[in-house]
Amino acid sequence: MLYAPYVKRLALGALLIFPIFSDLCAMTFKEKLSAIRLQMAADGVAAYIIPSADPHMSEYLPAHYKCIPFVTGFTGSVSTVVITPDFAGLWTDSRYFEQAEAQLKDSGFELVKLKTQGMPEYITWLAEKLPNKASLAFDESLVSVFLGELLRQQLAFKGIQFHHHDYLGPIWENRPKLPSNPAFLIPEAVVGQSLQEKLSAVRRVMDRQHATAHLISSLDDIAWLFNLRGADVQFNPVVLAFALITANQCTLYLQRSKFSEEDLHTLATADVTVLAYDAVAQDLQYLPAESSLLLDPRKNCLALYRLIPTSVIKILDANPSTGLKAKKNAVEIANTRNTMIKDGVALTKFLKWIDDQVGQQEITEISAAAQLRAFRAEQEGFIGESFNTIAAYKAHGALPHYGSTAESNVALEKDGLFLVDSGGQYRYGTTDITRVIPLGNITDEEATDYTLVLKAMINGCRARFPKGTCGYQIDAITRNSMWEHALNYGHGTGHGVGFFLNVHEGPQIFNPSATTVPIELGMITSIEPGIYRPGKHGIRIENLVLAVPDQSNAFNEFYAFEALTLAPIDTTLVKKELLEKVQIDWLNNYHENVYAKLSPFLDAEHQQFLAKMTTAL
Q: Distance between CA atoms of 91 and 168, rounded to whole angstroms?
Protein backbone atom coordinates (compact mmCIF):
# COMPACT_ATOMS: atom_id res chain seq x y z
CA MET A 1 0.00 0.00 0.00
CA LEU A 2 1.11 3.55 -0.64
CA TYR A 3 0.77 4.91 2.86
CA ALA A 4 2.39 2.60 5.40
CA PRO A 5 1.29 4.65 8.49
CA TYR A 6 -2.31 3.67 7.80
CA VAL A 7 -1.89 -0.07 7.36
CA LYS A 8 -2.15 -0.82 11.08
CA ARG A 9 -5.35 1.19 11.40
CA LEU A 10 -6.95 -0.69 8.52
CA ALA A 11 -6.03 -4.02 10.01
CA LEU A 12 -7.61 -3.08 13.33
CA GLY A 13 -10.72 -1.92 11.50
CA ALA A 14 -10.92 -5.26 9.73
CA LEU A 15 -10.96 -7.07 13.05
CA LEU A 16 -13.93 -5.00 14.13
CA ILE A 17 -15.97 -5.57 11.00
CA PHE A 18 -15.28 -9.04 9.66
CA PRO A 19 -16.99 -10.97 12.50
CA ILE A 20 -20.18 -8.98 11.96
CA PHE A 21 -20.35 -9.41 8.17
CA SER A 22 -18.86 -12.79 7.43
CA ASP A 23 -20.15 -13.06 3.86
CA LEU A 24 -18.77 -9.79 2.54
CA CYS A 25 -19.04 -10.84 -1.10
CA ALA A 26 -22.81 -10.86 -0.69
CA MET A 27 -23.07 -7.59 1.21
CA THR A 28 -25.85 -5.34 0.01
CA PHE A 29 -25.34 -1.60 -0.29
CA LYS A 30 -27.35 -1.12 2.89
CA GLU A 31 -25.10 -3.58 4.71
CA LYS A 32 -22.01 -1.74 3.49
CA LEU A 33 -23.53 1.50 4.74
CA SER A 34 -24.17 -0.11 8.13
CA ALA A 35 -20.59 -1.41 8.24
CA ILE A 36 -19.24 2.08 7.60
CA ARG A 37 -21.48 3.56 10.29
CA LEU A 38 -20.26 0.99 12.81
CA GLN A 39 -16.68 2.13 12.21
CA MET A 40 -17.74 5.77 12.41
CA ALA A 41 -19.45 5.15 15.74
CA ALA A 42 -16.39 3.37 17.13
CA ASP A 43 -14.22 6.39 16.21
CA GLY A 44 -16.73 9.04 17.27
CA VAL A 45 -17.01 10.34 13.68
CA ALA A 46 -20.09 12.43 12.87
CA ALA A 47 -19.67 12.47 9.07
CA TYR A 48 -17.64 10.57 6.49
CA ILE A 49 -16.85 11.85 2.98
CA ILE A 50 -16.16 9.55 0.01
CA PRO A 51 -14.93 11.48 -3.05
CA SER A 52 -14.74 10.12 -6.57
CA ALA A 53 -10.95 10.20 -6.77
CA ASP A 54 -7.67 8.34 -6.41
CA PRO A 55 -4.27 9.53 -5.06
CA HIS A 56 -3.65 11.16 -8.46
CA MET A 57 -6.93 13.13 -8.43
CA SER A 58 -7.99 11.38 -11.63
CA GLU A 59 -11.38 11.75 -13.28
CA TYR A 60 -11.38 8.19 -14.60
CA LEU A 61 -10.35 5.70 -11.95
CA PRO A 62 -8.68 2.30 -11.82
CA ALA A 63 -11.06 -0.36 -10.50
CA HIS A 64 -9.19 -0.34 -7.18
CA TYR A 65 -10.41 3.21 -6.50
CA LYS A 66 -14.00 2.95 -7.71
CA CYS A 67 -15.18 3.50 -4.16
CA ILE A 68 -18.54 5.12 -4.86
CA PRO A 69 -19.77 2.35 -7.18
CA PHE A 70 -18.68 -0.18 -4.54
CA VAL A 71 -20.54 1.58 -1.74
CA THR A 72 -23.64 2.91 -3.52
CA GLY A 73 -24.01 1.25 -6.94
CA PHE A 74 -23.82 4.62 -8.71
CA THR A 75 -21.45 4.45 -11.69
CA GLY A 76 -21.35 8.06 -12.86
CA SER A 77 -17.87 9.56 -13.13
CA VAL A 78 -18.51 12.66 -10.97
CA SER A 79 -20.04 12.51 -7.50
CA THR A 80 -19.37 12.78 -3.77
CA VAL A 81 -20.88 10.74 -0.96
CA VAL A 82 -21.45 12.00 2.58
CA ILE A 83 -22.52 9.63 5.35
CA THR A 84 -23.80 10.61 8.80
CA PRO A 85 -25.47 8.41 11.43
CA ASP A 86 -28.92 9.28 10.08
CA PHE A 87 -28.35 10.33 6.45
CA ALA A 88 -26.42 9.09 3.44
CA GLY A 89 -26.38 11.31 0.37
CA LEU A 90 -24.78 11.33 -3.07
CA TRP A 91 -24.16 14.76 -4.59
CA THR A 92 -23.98 14.92 -8.39
CA ASP A 93 -24.94 17.25 -11.23
CA SER A 94 -27.78 17.32 -13.74
CA ARG A 95 -26.00 15.02 -16.21
CA TYR A 96 -26.59 12.15 -13.80
CA PHE A 97 -29.90 12.90 -12.05
CA GLU A 98 -31.96 10.19 -13.74
CA GLN A 99 -29.11 7.68 -13.66
CA ALA A 100 -28.49 8.30 -9.96
CA GLU A 101 -32.15 8.02 -9.02
CA ALA A 102 -32.32 4.63 -10.72
CA GLN A 103 -29.03 3.26 -9.42
CA LEU A 104 -29.51 4.47 -5.83
CA LYS A 105 -32.92 2.86 -5.44
CA ASP A 106 -33.00 0.69 -2.30
CA SER A 107 -29.31 1.39 -1.63
CA GLY A 108 -29.83 3.46 1.52
CA PHE A 109 -28.38 6.49 -0.27
CA GLU A 110 -30.34 9.52 -1.46
CA LEU A 111 -29.60 11.71 -4.47
CA VAL A 112 -28.75 15.32 -3.64
CA LYS A 113 -28.97 17.44 -6.78
CA LEU A 114 -26.17 19.92 -7.30
CA LYS A 115 -27.33 23.40 -8.22
CA THR A 116 -24.02 24.25 -9.90
CA GLN A 117 -21.91 21.67 -11.70
CA GLY A 118 -18.52 21.09 -10.10
CA MET A 119 -19.22 22.93 -6.85
CA PRO A 120 -18.70 21.12 -3.49
CA GLU A 121 -22.13 22.07 -2.18
CA TYR A 122 -22.01 19.26 0.37
CA ILE A 123 -19.66 21.45 2.42
CA THR A 124 -22.47 23.96 2.98
CA TRP A 125 -24.73 21.07 3.97
CA LEU A 126 -22.14 19.83 6.46
CA ALA A 127 -21.80 23.32 7.90
CA GLU A 128 -25.54 23.36 8.56
CA LYS A 129 -25.88 19.80 9.91
CA LEU A 130 -22.75 19.12 11.95
CA PRO A 131 -22.68 20.16 15.62
CA ASN A 132 -19.83 22.31 16.90
CA LYS A 133 -16.50 20.48 17.31
CA ALA A 134 -17.81 17.40 15.51
CA SER A 135 -15.39 14.92 13.93
CA LEU A 136 -15.30 14.72 10.13
CA ALA A 137 -13.38 11.91 8.44
CA PHE A 138 -12.21 10.97 4.96
CA ASP A 139 -9.40 9.03 3.31
CA GLU A 140 -6.70 11.67 2.83
CA SER A 141 -5.30 9.82 -0.17
CA LEU A 142 -8.56 10.57 -2.03
CA VAL A 143 -8.83 14.27 -1.12
CA SER A 144 -6.84 16.98 -2.86
CA VAL A 145 -4.81 19.58 -1.01
CA PHE A 146 -7.20 22.22 -2.37
CA LEU A 147 -10.32 20.40 -1.16
CA GLY A 148 -8.78 19.70 2.23
CA GLU A 149 -8.05 23.39 2.71
CA LEU A 150 -11.51 24.37 1.46
CA LEU A 151 -13.11 22.06 4.02
CA ARG A 152 -10.93 23.48 6.78
CA GLN A 153 -11.74 27.08 5.86
CA GLN A 154 -15.49 26.68 5.39
CA LEU A 155 -15.99 24.58 8.54
CA ALA A 156 -13.56 26.50 10.78
CA PHE A 157 -16.34 28.53 12.41
CA LYS A 158 -17.70 25.32 13.93
CA GLY A 159 -14.37 24.03 15.16
CA ILE A 160 -14.72 20.81 13.14
CA GLN A 161 -12.05 18.18 13.83
CA PHE A 162 -10.61 16.38 10.79
CA HIS A 163 -9.42 12.77 10.79
CA HIS A 164 -7.97 10.36 8.27
CA HIS A 165 -9.90 7.08 8.08
CA ASP A 166 -10.40 4.54 5.34
CA TYR A 167 -13.65 2.78 6.19
CA LEU A 168 -13.86 0.93 2.87
CA GLY A 169 -10.70 -1.16 3.02
CA PRO A 170 -11.90 -3.32 5.92
CA ILE A 171 -15.18 -4.23 4.19
CA TRP A 172 -13.98 -4.51 0.58
CA GLU A 173 -13.11 -8.16 0.16
CA ASN A 174 -11.53 -9.12 -3.17
CA ARG A 175 -10.88 -5.48 -3.91
CA PRO A 176 -9.28 -5.15 -7.36
CA LYS A 177 -5.51 -4.84 -7.15
CA LEU A 178 -3.65 -1.86 -8.51
CA PRO A 179 -3.11 -2.39 -12.25
CA SER A 180 0.19 -3.78 -13.49
CA ASN A 181 -0.27 -3.38 -17.24
CA PRO A 182 2.76 -2.78 -19.46
CA ALA A 183 3.91 0.77 -20.13
CA PHE A 184 5.82 2.10 -23.12
CA LEU A 185 7.60 5.22 -24.35
CA ILE A 186 6.47 6.88 -27.56
CA PRO A 187 9.10 8.31 -29.93
CA GLU A 188 9.91 11.97 -30.34
CA ALA A 189 8.90 11.70 -34.01
CA VAL A 190 5.29 11.13 -32.89
CA VAL A 191 5.07 13.76 -30.14
CA GLY A 192 7.40 16.41 -31.54
CA GLN A 193 9.47 16.91 -28.36
CA SER A 194 11.98 14.82 -26.48
CA LEU A 195 11.74 14.07 -22.77
CA GLN A 196 14.83 16.22 -22.21
CA GLU A 197 13.22 19.20 -23.98
CA LYS A 198 10.05 18.86 -21.89
CA LEU A 199 12.02 18.58 -18.65
CA SER A 200 13.97 21.72 -19.57
CA ALA A 201 10.69 23.60 -20.17
CA VAL A 202 9.32 22.49 -16.78
CA ARG A 203 12.58 23.44 -15.03
CA ARG A 204 12.47 26.92 -16.57
CA VAL A 205 9.07 27.45 -14.93
CA MET A 206 10.43 26.05 -11.66
CA ASP A 207 13.25 28.59 -11.81
CA ARG A 208 10.82 31.46 -12.35
CA GLN A 209 8.85 30.32 -9.31
CA HIS A 210 12.00 29.78 -7.22
CA ALA A 211 11.16 26.10 -6.72
CA THR A 212 14.00 23.68 -6.04
CA ALA A 213 11.73 20.64 -6.45
CA HIS A 214 8.45 19.78 -8.12
CA LEU A 215 6.02 16.95 -7.27
CA ILE A 216 3.69 15.64 -9.99
CA SER A 217 0.89 13.20 -9.20
CA SER A 218 -1.53 13.72 -12.11
CA LEU A 219 -1.22 10.85 -14.55
CA ASP A 220 -1.76 12.80 -17.77
CA ASP A 221 0.94 15.33 -16.80
CA ILE A 222 3.37 12.49 -16.12
CA ALA A 223 2.45 10.73 -19.36
CA TRP A 224 3.02 13.91 -21.36
CA LEU A 225 6.28 14.86 -19.65
CA PHE A 226 7.96 11.46 -19.98
CA ASN A 227 6.43 10.59 -23.38
CA LEU A 228 4.93 7.68 -21.51
CA ARG A 229 1.76 5.73 -22.26
CA GLY A 230 0.09 2.67 -20.78
CA ALA A 231 -3.23 1.06 -19.93
CA ASP A 232 -3.70 1.39 -16.17
CA VAL A 233 -6.94 3.37 -16.49
CA GLN A 234 -9.73 2.39 -18.84
CA PHE A 235 -9.95 4.71 -21.87
CA ASN A 236 -7.00 6.88 -20.73
CA PRO A 237 -3.56 5.65 -21.92
CA VAL A 238 -1.83 6.53 -18.65
CA VAL A 239 0.28 4.74 -16.04
CA LEU A 240 0.00 4.90 -12.24
CA ALA A 241 3.05 6.91 -11.27
CA PHE A 242 4.44 9.89 -9.38
CA ALA A 243 7.35 12.13 -10.37
CA LEU A 244 9.75 14.30 -8.39
CA ILE A 245 11.91 16.77 -10.27
CA THR A 246 14.78 18.91 -9.04
CA ALA A 247 17.29 21.09 -10.90
CA ASN A 248 19.59 18.12 -11.56
CA GLN A 249 17.57 15.02 -10.71
CA CYS A 250 14.38 13.43 -11.98
CA THR A 251 12.70 10.44 -10.36
CA LEU A 252 9.80 8.50 -11.82
CA TYR A 253 7.95 6.33 -9.29
CA LEU A 254 6.22 3.37 -10.86
CA GLN A 255 6.44 -0.38 -11.13
CA ARG A 256 9.71 -1.03 -13.01
CA SER A 257 8.41 -4.32 -14.42
CA LYS A 258 5.96 -2.32 -16.57
CA PHE A 259 8.84 -1.23 -18.83
CA SER A 260 10.91 -3.09 -21.37
CA GLU A 261 14.68 -3.07 -20.85
CA GLU A 262 14.98 -0.82 -23.90
CA ASP A 263 12.65 1.78 -22.38
CA LEU A 264 14.43 1.60 -19.02
CA HIS A 265 17.69 2.27 -20.86
CA THR A 266 16.13 5.24 -22.69
CA LEU A 267 14.99 6.74 -19.37
CA ALA A 268 18.39 6.19 -17.80
CA THR A 269 20.05 7.91 -20.76
CA ALA A 270 17.82 10.91 -20.06
CA ASP A 271 18.98 10.88 -16.39
CA VAL A 272 15.61 9.64 -15.13
CA THR A 273 15.76 7.34 -12.11
CA VAL A 274 12.95 4.78 -11.84
CA LEU A 275 11.94 3.78 -8.30
CA ALA A 276 9.07 1.81 -6.79
CA TYR A 277 5.61 3.41 -6.95
CA ASP A 278 5.26 3.85 -3.18
CA ALA A 279 8.83 5.11 -2.65
CA VAL A 280 7.60 8.66 -3.28
CA ALA A 281 6.22 8.78 0.27
CA GLN A 282 9.65 8.24 1.81
CA ASP A 283 11.44 10.62 -0.55
CA LEU A 284 9.02 13.43 0.26
CA GLN A 285 9.74 13.05 3.96
CA TYR A 286 13.47 13.55 3.33
CA LEU A 287 13.33 16.70 1.23
CA PRO A 288 16.11 19.04 2.38
CA ALA A 289 15.26 21.66 4.99
CA GLU A 290 14.56 25.10 3.52
CA SER A 291 14.05 23.67 0.05
CA SER A 292 10.99 24.81 -1.90
CA LEU A 293 8.51 22.38 -3.44
CA LEU A 294 6.15 23.29 -6.27
CA LEU A 295 2.95 21.25 -6.34
CA ASP A 296 -0.51 21.68 -7.80
CA PRO A 297 -3.02 21.76 -4.90
CA ARG A 298 -5.82 20.43 -7.11
CA LYS A 299 -3.79 17.49 -8.45
CA ASN A 300 -2.02 16.19 -5.34
CA CYS A 301 -3.57 14.33 -2.45
CA LEU A 302 -3.61 15.53 1.13
CA ALA A 303 -1.93 12.33 2.39
CA LEU A 304 1.26 13.03 0.43
CA TYR A 305 1.13 16.70 1.31
CA ARG A 306 1.17 15.89 5.02
CA LEU A 307 4.41 13.93 4.58
CA ILE A 308 6.33 17.02 3.43
CA PRO A 309 8.51 18.40 6.25
CA THR A 310 7.30 21.67 7.74
CA SER A 311 10.70 23.20 6.97
CA VAL A 312 10.04 22.85 3.23
CA ILE A 313 8.48 25.89 1.57
CA LYS A 314 5.34 24.87 -0.35
CA ILE A 315 4.62 26.68 -3.59
CA LEU A 316 1.01 25.89 -4.48
CA ASP A 317 0.41 26.49 -8.18
CA ALA A 318 -0.60 24.67 -11.34
CA ASN A 319 1.74 22.05 -12.77
CA PRO A 320 3.86 23.72 -15.49
CA SER A 321 3.21 20.67 -17.66
CA THR A 322 -0.55 21.27 -17.64
CA GLY A 323 -0.29 24.45 -19.68
CA LEU A 324 2.57 23.17 -21.80
CA LYS A 325 0.79 20.00 -22.95
CA ALA A 326 -2.42 21.88 -23.73
CA LYS A 327 -0.65 23.84 -26.49
CA LYS A 328 -0.06 21.19 -29.13
CA ASN A 329 3.09 21.49 -31.21
CA ALA A 330 3.24 21.27 -34.99
CA VAL A 331 3.93 17.51 -35.02
CA GLU A 332 1.05 16.78 -32.64
CA ILE A 333 -1.30 18.95 -34.72
CA ALA A 334 -0.30 17.26 -37.98
CA ASN A 335 -0.74 13.82 -36.44
CA THR A 336 -4.10 14.82 -34.98
CA ARG A 337 -5.33 16.01 -38.39
CA ASN A 338 -4.41 12.64 -39.87
CA THR A 339 -6.11 10.86 -36.99
CA MET A 340 -9.29 12.82 -37.67
CA ILE A 341 -9.33 11.45 -41.22
CA LYS A 342 -9.12 7.89 -39.89
CA ASP A 343 -11.86 8.59 -37.35
CA GLY A 344 -14.02 10.27 -40.00
CA VAL A 345 -13.73 7.24 -42.25
CA ALA A 346 -14.91 5.02 -39.39
CA LEU A 347 -17.82 7.39 -38.61
CA THR A 348 -18.88 7.53 -42.25
CA LYS A 349 -18.96 3.74 -42.46
CA PHE A 350 -20.97 3.64 -39.24
CA LEU A 351 -23.52 6.21 -40.44
CA LYS A 352 -24.02 4.28 -43.67
CA TRP A 353 -24.35 1.01 -41.76
CA ILE A 354 -27.05 2.52 -39.55
CA ASP A 355 -28.83 3.93 -42.60
CA ASP A 356 -28.75 0.57 -44.37
CA GLN A 357 -29.46 -1.81 -41.53
CA VAL A 358 -31.99 -0.22 -39.16
CA GLY A 359 -35.24 -2.02 -39.87
CA GLN A 360 -33.40 -4.78 -41.74
CA GLN A 361 -31.74 -6.44 -38.74
CA GLU A 362 -31.97 -5.95 -34.98
CA ILE A 363 -29.63 -3.21 -33.89
CA THR A 364 -29.53 -2.18 -30.25
CA GLU A 365 -27.73 0.64 -28.47
CA ILE A 366 -25.06 -1.81 -27.32
CA SER A 367 -24.60 -3.56 -30.68
CA ALA A 368 -24.44 -0.19 -32.46
CA ALA A 369 -21.65 0.96 -30.13
CA ALA A 370 -19.82 -2.33 -30.74
CA GLN A 371 -20.09 -1.90 -34.52
CA LEU A 372 -18.73 1.65 -34.30
CA ARG A 373 -15.77 0.35 -32.32
CA ALA A 374 -15.23 -2.31 -34.98
CA PHE A 375 -15.09 0.33 -37.73
CA ARG A 376 -12.55 2.29 -35.68
CA ALA A 377 -10.53 -0.85 -35.06
CA GLU A 378 -10.06 -1.19 -38.84
CA GLN A 379 -8.06 2.03 -38.80
CA GLU A 380 -4.26 1.92 -38.49
CA GLY A 381 -3.01 3.04 -35.09
CA PHE A 382 -6.29 2.45 -33.23
CA ILE A 383 -5.71 1.57 -29.57
CA GLY A 384 -9.19 1.71 -28.07
CA GLU A 385 -12.07 4.00 -27.21
CA SER A 386 -11.38 7.31 -25.49
CA PHE A 387 -14.45 6.92 -23.26
CA ASN A 388 -17.47 4.67 -22.92
CA THR A 389 -19.62 5.30 -26.00
CA ILE A 390 -22.91 7.06 -25.30
CA ALA A 391 -25.32 5.35 -27.69
CA ALA A 392 -28.69 6.77 -26.64
CA TYR A 393 -31.94 6.14 -28.48
CA LYS A 394 -34.98 8.42 -28.10
CA ALA A 395 -35.57 9.32 -24.42
CA HIS A 396 -32.18 7.91 -23.42
CA GLY A 397 -30.63 10.81 -25.33
CA ALA A 398 -32.00 13.15 -22.67
CA LEU A 399 -29.44 11.63 -20.25
CA PRO A 400 -26.24 13.46 -21.22
CA HIS A 401 -23.95 10.75 -19.78
CA TYR A 402 -26.16 7.75 -20.49
CA GLY A 403 -24.45 4.38 -20.61
CA SER A 404 -26.48 1.51 -22.01
CA THR A 405 -26.64 -1.61 -19.86
CA ALA A 406 -28.18 -5.03 -20.37
CA GLU A 407 -31.21 -3.75 -18.45
CA SER A 408 -31.62 -0.45 -20.28
CA ASN A 409 -30.54 -1.56 -23.76
CA VAL A 410 -33.20 -1.03 -26.44
CA ALA A 411 -33.48 -1.81 -30.15
CA LEU A 412 -33.42 0.94 -32.76
CA GLU A 413 -36.45 1.41 -34.96
CA LYS A 414 -37.22 3.59 -37.98
CA ASP A 415 -38.49 6.26 -35.64
CA GLY A 416 -37.02 9.10 -33.57
CA LEU A 417 -33.47 10.24 -32.89
CA PHE A 418 -30.33 8.27 -32.04
CA LEU A 419 -27.54 10.21 -30.26
CA VAL A 420 -24.02 8.78 -30.47
CA ASP A 421 -21.20 10.43 -28.51
CA SER A 422 -17.97 8.49 -28.96
CA GLY A 423 -14.24 8.77 -29.37
CA GLY A 424 -11.10 6.85 -30.21
CA GLN A 425 -7.57 6.59 -28.87
CA TYR A 426 -5.06 6.30 -31.70
CA ARG A 427 -1.27 6.29 -31.49
CA TYR A 428 -1.39 9.64 -33.26
CA GLY A 429 -4.23 11.43 -31.50
CA THR A 430 -7.45 11.37 -29.50
CA THR A 431 -10.94 11.95 -30.88
CA ASP A 432 -14.33 12.89 -29.43
CA ILE A 433 -17.39 13.42 -31.61
CA THR A 434 -21.16 13.53 -31.20
CA ARG A 435 -23.68 13.10 -33.99
CA VAL A 436 -27.47 12.73 -33.88
CA ILE A 437 -28.99 10.35 -36.42
CA PRO A 438 -32.64 10.77 -37.46
CA LEU A 439 -34.21 7.35 -37.95
CA GLY A 440 -37.69 8.40 -39.08
CA ASN A 441 -40.96 10.17 -38.18
CA ILE A 442 -39.18 13.26 -36.87
CA THR A 443 -41.42 15.68 -34.98
CA ASP A 444 -41.42 19.44 -35.47
CA GLU A 445 -40.03 19.88 -31.97
CA GLU A 446 -37.16 17.50 -32.68
CA ALA A 447 -36.32 19.30 -35.93
CA THR A 448 -36.42 22.70 -34.23
CA ASP A 449 -34.24 21.55 -31.34
CA TYR A 450 -31.78 19.90 -33.71
CA THR A 451 -31.45 23.04 -35.81
CA LEU A 452 -30.93 25.27 -32.78
CA VAL A 453 -28.24 22.97 -31.37
CA LEU A 454 -26.53 22.90 -34.77
CA LYS A 455 -26.73 26.70 -34.95
CA ALA A 456 -25.15 27.01 -31.52
CA MET A 457 -22.37 24.58 -32.39
CA ILE A 458 -21.60 26.45 -35.60
CA ASN A 459 -21.56 29.79 -33.76
CA GLY A 460 -18.98 28.40 -31.34
CA CYS A 461 -16.88 26.90 -34.13
CA ARG A 462 -16.87 30.04 -36.28
CA ALA A 463 -16.08 32.45 -33.43
CA ARG A 464 -13.35 35.03 -33.96
CA PHE A 465 -11.95 36.31 -30.68
CA PRO A 466 -9.11 38.51 -29.39
CA LYS A 467 -6.05 37.07 -27.71
CA GLY A 468 -6.76 36.67 -24.00
CA THR A 469 -10.34 35.44 -24.46
CA CYS A 470 -11.34 32.83 -21.89
CA GLY A 471 -13.56 29.78 -22.12
CA TYR A 472 -16.61 31.30 -20.45
CA GLN A 473 -16.76 33.87 -23.25
CA ILE A 474 -16.83 31.16 -25.94
CA ASP A 475 -19.45 29.37 -23.83
CA ALA A 476 -21.68 32.48 -23.96
CA ILE A 477 -21.15 32.94 -27.70
CA THR A 478 -22.21 29.33 -28.25
CA ARG A 479 -25.28 29.49 -26.01
CA ASN A 480 -26.55 32.88 -27.15
CA SER A 481 -28.68 31.68 -30.08
CA MET A 482 -30.33 29.14 -27.76
CA TRP A 483 -30.93 31.75 -25.06
CA GLU A 484 -32.88 33.73 -27.66
CA HIS A 485 -35.36 30.83 -27.64
CA ALA A 486 -35.24 30.51 -23.81
CA LEU A 487 -33.31 27.24 -24.09
CA ASN A 488 -30.20 26.11 -22.24
CA TYR A 489 -28.20 23.03 -21.22
CA GLY A 490 -26.78 22.01 -17.85
CA HIS A 491 -23.28 20.94 -18.88
CA GLY A 492 -20.29 22.85 -20.17
CA THR A 493 -19.86 23.74 -23.83
CA GLY A 494 -16.40 22.27 -24.20
CA HIS A 495 -13.33 20.64 -22.67
CA GLY A 496 -9.72 20.33 -23.68
CA VAL A 497 -8.57 17.12 -25.37
CA GLY A 498 -5.15 15.52 -25.09
CA PHE A 499 -2.81 14.11 -27.72
CA PHE A 500 -3.15 10.32 -27.43
CA LEU A 501 -4.05 11.14 -23.83
CA ASN A 502 -7.07 11.98 -21.71
CA VAL A 503 -10.19 12.97 -23.60
CA HIS A 504 -10.84 15.54 -20.84
CA GLU A 505 -7.80 17.77 -20.47
CA GLY A 506 -7.26 21.17 -18.85
CA PRO A 507 -6.51 23.86 -18.15
CA GLN A 508 -8.95 25.42 -20.62
CA ILE A 509 -12.66 24.73 -20.36
CA PHE A 510 -15.66 26.28 -22.07
CA ASN A 511 -18.35 26.61 -19.40
CA PRO A 512 -20.16 29.39 -17.50
CA SER A 513 -17.67 29.48 -14.62
CA ALA A 514 -15.35 32.48 -14.74
CA THR A 515 -12.21 30.39 -15.17
CA THR A 516 -9.49 32.85 -16.13
CA VAL A 517 -7.54 30.53 -18.42
CA PRO A 518 -7.08 32.18 -21.82
CA ILE A 519 -7.46 30.24 -25.04
CA GLU A 520 -4.00 29.85 -26.55
CA LEU A 521 -2.82 28.84 -29.99
CA GLY A 522 -2.53 25.09 -30.34
CA MET A 523 -5.22 24.22 -27.81
CA ILE A 524 -7.71 21.54 -28.88
CA THR A 525 -11.16 21.89 -27.33
CA SER A 526 -14.62 20.43 -27.92
CA ILE A 527 -17.71 22.48 -28.75
CA GLU A 528 -20.82 20.49 -27.84
CA PRO A 529 -24.07 22.31 -27.03
CA GLY A 530 -27.24 20.33 -26.47
CA ILE A 531 -30.96 20.30 -25.72
CA TYR A 532 -32.43 17.61 -23.47
CA ARG A 533 -36.14 16.95 -23.03
CA PRO A 534 -36.66 14.22 -20.39
CA GLY A 535 -38.86 11.40 -21.59
CA LYS A 536 -38.60 12.59 -25.20
CA HIS A 537 -35.19 13.11 -26.76
CA GLY A 538 -31.72 14.53 -26.40
CA ILE A 539 -29.67 16.36 -29.01
CA ARG A 540 -25.96 17.18 -28.86
CA ILE A 541 -23.64 17.92 -31.77
CA GLU A 542 -19.90 18.04 -31.14
CA ASN A 543 -16.77 18.92 -33.05
CA LEU A 544 -13.21 19.33 -31.81
CA VAL A 545 -11.59 22.62 -32.76
CA LEU A 546 -8.02 23.91 -32.82
CA ALA A 547 -7.17 27.49 -31.83
CA VAL A 548 -5.31 29.06 -34.78
CA PRO A 549 -4.12 32.58 -35.70
CA ASP A 550 -6.68 34.69 -37.55
CA GLN A 551 -5.48 38.27 -38.02
CA SER A 552 -3.71 41.11 -36.24
CA ASN A 553 -4.58 44.77 -36.38
CA ALA A 554 -4.50 47.92 -34.28
CA PHE A 555 -7.17 46.51 -31.97
CA ASN A 556 -5.58 43.20 -31.03
CA GLU A 557 -4.26 39.86 -32.20
CA PHE A 558 -7.28 37.75 -33.14
CA TYR A 559 -7.67 33.96 -33.07
CA ALA A 560 -10.18 31.59 -34.65
CA PHE A 561 -11.05 27.90 -34.58
CA GLU A 562 -10.20 25.26 -37.16
CA ALA A 563 -12.70 22.38 -37.11
CA LEU A 564 -10.55 19.29 -36.67
CA THR A 565 -13.38 16.75 -36.58
CA LEU A 566 -14.16 15.36 -40.03
CA ALA A 567 -17.55 13.65 -40.22
CA PRO A 568 -20.84 14.55 -41.89
CA ILE A 569 -23.58 16.29 -39.92
CA ASP A 570 -27.06 15.18 -40.89
CA THR A 571 -28.99 18.00 -42.57
CA THR A 572 -32.22 16.21 -43.50
CA LEU A 573 -34.07 17.57 -40.48
CA VAL A 574 -32.56 21.07 -40.49
CA LYS A 575 -35.05 23.95 -40.53
CA LYS A 576 -33.16 26.21 -42.86
CA GLU A 577 -35.26 29.24 -41.91
CA LEU A 578 -33.77 29.13 -38.40
CA LEU A 579 -30.24 29.51 -39.75
CA GLU A 580 -28.57 32.67 -40.96
CA LYS A 581 -26.47 32.83 -44.12
CA VAL A 582 -23.18 32.79 -42.17
CA GLN A 583 -24.15 29.51 -40.49
CA ILE A 584 -25.29 27.93 -43.76
CA ASP A 585 -22.05 29.02 -45.42
CA TRP A 586 -19.99 27.57 -42.57
CA LEU A 587 -21.84 24.24 -42.76
CA ASN A 588 -21.49 24.01 -46.54
CA ASN A 589 -17.78 24.82 -46.38
CA TYR A 590 -17.33 22.31 -43.58
CA HIS A 591 -19.04 19.57 -45.54
CA GLU A 592 -17.02 20.39 -48.65
CA ASN A 593 -13.85 19.91 -46.59
CA VAL A 594 -15.17 16.68 -45.03
CA TYR A 595 -15.81 15.17 -48.46
CA ALA A 596 -12.46 16.31 -49.84
CA LYS A 597 -10.52 14.83 -46.90
CA LEU A 598 -12.42 11.55 -46.44
CA SER A 599 -13.48 10.47 -49.93
CA PRO A 600 -9.99 9.33 -51.07
CA PHE A 601 -10.06 6.70 -48.31
CA LEU A 602 -13.54 5.34 -49.12
CA ASP A 603 -14.78 2.92 -51.75
CA ALA A 604 -17.26 4.09 -54.38
CA GLU A 605 -20.32 3.05 -52.39
CA HIS A 606 -19.24 4.97 -49.30
CA GLN A 607 -18.15 7.93 -51.42
CA GLN A 608 -21.63 8.11 -52.87
CA PHE A 609 -23.16 7.98 -49.39
CA LEU A 610 -20.79 10.69 -48.12
CA ALA A 611 -21.54 12.90 -51.14
CA LYS A 612 -25.24 12.71 -50.30
CA MET A 613 -24.61 13.47 -46.62
CA THR A 614 -22.46 16.50 -47.45
CA THR A 615 -24.69 18.01 -50.14
CA ALA A 616 -24.82 21.77 -49.71
CA LEU A 617 -27.88 23.31 -48.09
A: 19
